[in-house]
Amino acid sequence: MKKQILLFSIALLPLAALSNEPSAFGSNTNDVDSSSATTSYSNTVSVSDKKYFQNNQKTISSTSNDNLSSTKTDQGSISSEQYEGMRSVVDSYASKIAKQDDKMRQLEEENKKLREYVEENRKIQADNQEKIKTVVGELGTLIDSINKNYVPKDKFDQLANEVRGGKSASKTVTPAIDSTKKDTVKETPPATKVISAKELSTKDSATLTKEADDLLDKKSYSEAQALYTELLHRNYKPAKTNFSLGEAAYNQKAYSTAIEHYKASITASDKAAYTPALLYHTGVSFEKLGKAKEAQGFYKALKDGYPDSPEAKKVK
What we know:
This protein is mainly α. It has helices spanning about 1-20, 30-50, 50-150, 155-165, 165-170, 175-180, 180-185, 195-200, 205-215, 220-235, 240-250, 255-270, 275-290, 290-305, 310-315.
């Protein structure tokens, strides 16, 4: 109702303004009445509606302020939530990046260790190659010396045949040797103790070797030869077995038999701990048989190949 009165009052304002204008025809008959009406209406509006206008203005202002404050509060709340969300995302990415950095550092450390390991292995391999070259060179020199000084195989066979009484032997051995060293050259075939095959078959090769070596050390040459012969039939360590048979024959002054076994031994293996003894006893055997020149070949090989051995020191 008040709003209708307000609108009606606003509509009458122009009429009131027109009524206050002087008449074009000079007539002021209604001036007093109009002025009175206007004054009365103005008083009516100012009293009843001004308070309404003021109250509405305060209400509108208060509502506007409340709405503005609420809007600011909502905007502040939204901005805070967005900031917290963005900070959470940034923190998550920062954590992932930190983990990646740690993995990268670990990989770099592992790669560094791997490079150091490879470099160390390379240096070790290089050192080993140099050592191998040195050893191969020394071995080559030793082999050249042995090949140069050893009696060739065909010559060895010829000498063995001569020792066994071939035609060449009768031509080579001088009468002086035959007359002055008959006792030395004369050989007594080694006697062999008969051991039953059944007894030998019950023993393994390692046991037979130990027993034969013990008999050889005790100078029971015949018994030792029986066991070594059985081992040779079994083809058990032919190089060592032939050397032991040669030693048994050598100690019984059966030099031709000793040379045959020495030859078989060194043909099977020319690099053994007993090689210096084999070379020395082969030389002595040839020397006992009047083959001084051939004996010197073995002595020279012994001194060149094994200069620090006890056998080499025996050679003059």
